[in-house]
Amino acid sequence: MQIYNTLTRRKEAFTPIEPGKVRMYVCGMTVYDYCHLGHARVMVAFDVITRYLRWRGFDVTYVRNITDIDDKILKRADENGEPIDSLTERMIDAMHEDEARLFVLRPDHEPRATGHIGEIVAMIETLIGKGYAYAADNGDVYYRVRRFEGYGKLNNRDLDEMRAGARVEVDEHKEDPLDFVLWKAAKPGEASWPSPWGEGRPGWHIECSAMSTCCLGETFDIHGGGPDLTFPHHENEIAQSEAATGKPYVNTWMHAGAVRVNQEKMSKSLGNFFTIREVLEVHDPEVVRYLLVASHYRSPINYAPESLSEARKSLERFYNALDGVEVDGKDEQSIRQEQALAKAVYGDFEERFVAAMDDDFNTAEALSVLFDLARELNRARKEAPEQAPTLARVLVRLGGILGLLQQAPAAFLQSGAGELPLSEAEIEARIAARGEAKKAKDFATADGIRDELASLGIILKDSREGTTWVFEKAVD
């Protein structure tokens, strides 16, 4: 298995620290607002990675933190006139609702910053004791960036270059403009915790260093996050953690690609900023997940009407192939026997799927394998129907590793039909009337019924088994 390591800027053979076990930490959300599409990208990318590693037999411990104390949280709670705990709990509940709708499995652990104040304070004390941090006379504690020899290695940046090009806020309490805060002294009325430096709260970067090492140890296998976190957040995590422990912090750094909207950066100022729940009010959750999975996790994604339309059509190809094929009711031994037969006749789709995913989790290539499998399934339905269930089972099983194709085909193909002026019973009655018209050779009436349904987005599919229908919702 090869994984691209942001730290070394190349693909590397993945070897866990402890054989058979993977410890992974992903930077989660700052819970002051609803999750947006960029969050969805990270959620889904590392959900797929976790699913695949587990399917390959690894014992994965997946940790994704929650930042529940931050300047933005304090500001939003004040604007809303609500307690901080009320705001954060409401946003955490909403986050869990959003990820569940996108078929994202919950991480094994979701540590909250406010639950690890003791560990954060202890790490800061260690950094001060080693000379990597200092307490200023205003009650803040800062990290000495120039004291850490490896600073900039994740982003391949030179310190002087960073200093020259950075917009560094002037702070007379810092020894160096590049130094960053580890502990913030509390202003009157702010949420705070006691510390050796007075009442205050942790800085954002130190939270993740403390929570990750607490949950996964001083050195762990994978650290992931969004594309905007490499600097300064992850760079600062490395500096803090390695200075505190004297050990390498993380072996493999992984970063998901950005989400663009109509080829532009997603931004509130551009008016193209979408929360997950806004998107899911309009679009099928599996369609949105497919869009996020269809590109390699490191590639940027373009969110646009035509992208969603293509995602819908792709899923329909899979579900149309599965529609009407029995995939349940077989014991494990029978399934293995069937798969051996399918491999002999149709080739090893699973082997090709594994090769794609072992190559830095190449979901785009893995999906191309599934499309080949769907074509073989369609052919089998016509030429060798007794083999169709075996191929369908393989398709559903491999699709499940990507978090796809787990719905009943009819449920997906007819999703959104609840918005129609016709009930399901009325649609079936019209299909039956069309069938009677065709038997009577009244093709004008039959075509009229078909055209009426098509005008509502209801597309009829005739086969030897009868007529089924799908709902093609217009994508705005």
Notable traits:
476 residues, alpha/beta, 4-stranded parallel β-sheet, 17 helices, 47% helix, elongated
Structural class by helix and strand composition = alpha/beta
Report, as a whole number of angstroms, the end-to-end distance.
40 Å
Helix content: 40-55%
State the shape. Answer: elongated
Largest sheet properties: 4 strands, parallel
Tell me the number of helical segments per DSSP (H or I, 4 or more residues long): 17
- The residue ranges in which pLDDT falls below 50 over 5 or more consecutive positions are none
Give a count of the beta strands, DSSP E runs of length 2 or more.
Answer: 15
- The Cα radius of gyration reads 27 Å
The mean pLDDT is: 91
- Strand arrangement within the widest β-sheet reads 4-3-9-10
Strand content: 5-15%
Written overview of the protein:
The chain is α/β, with parallel strands linked by helices and 476 residues long. The chain contains 17 helices and 15 strands. It has helices at residues 37-55, 71-80, 84-101, 117-129, 159-165, 204-216, 230-245, 276-280, 285-294, 305-322, 332-346, 349-358, 363-383, 388-401, 409-413, 424-439, 443-455; strands at residues 2-5, 10-13, 21-26, 59-64, 133-135, 141-143, 180-185, 200-202, 220-225, 250-255, 259-261, 264-265, 301-303, 458-463, 466-471. The strands form five sheets. A four-stranded parallel β-sheet has the order 4-3-9-10, sandwiched between helices. β11 (259-261) and β12 (264-265) form a beta hairpin. α2 crosses α3 (84-101) and α11 crosses α14 (388-401). The relative contact order is 0.11.
